[in-house]
Design goal:
By secondary structure, the chain is mostly helical. It is built from 2 helices and no strands. Keywords: Membrane, Transmembrane, Transmembrane helix.
Length: about 80
């Protein structure tokens, strides 16, 4: 009859297989994740390059049209820009 100590001491965690594939399987997963990351970065960079320089926030405006009332923001707060002097 098995005692509680013998049941707890028994190694039943699946690592009793000889030859072990944990190393090669882990390497395969790391390489696969690396390739997926590189492909995702390339795809996102391509999508970012295709974005327009600015977005028109007027509803119903035609794509690619610039705003007529666009103004240049002053880079330093509290000072007037060159155009307004």
């Amino acid at each position: 009859m098995l005692t509680l100590a013998q049941v707890l001491a028994e190694n039943n965690f699946g690592d009793t297989r000889s030859g072990g594939l944990a190393g090669p399987a882990g390497l395969f997963l790391i390489v696969l994740l690396g390739i997926a990351t590189v492909l995702l970065i390339r795809n996102m960079n391509a999508r970012l390059r295709r974005l327009p320089e600015s977005f028109d926030d007027r509803p119903g405006a035609a794509p690619g049209t610039a705003r007529a009332d666009s103004s240049v923001l002053d880079p330093t707060p509290g000072t007037r820009s060159e155009e307004s002097r």
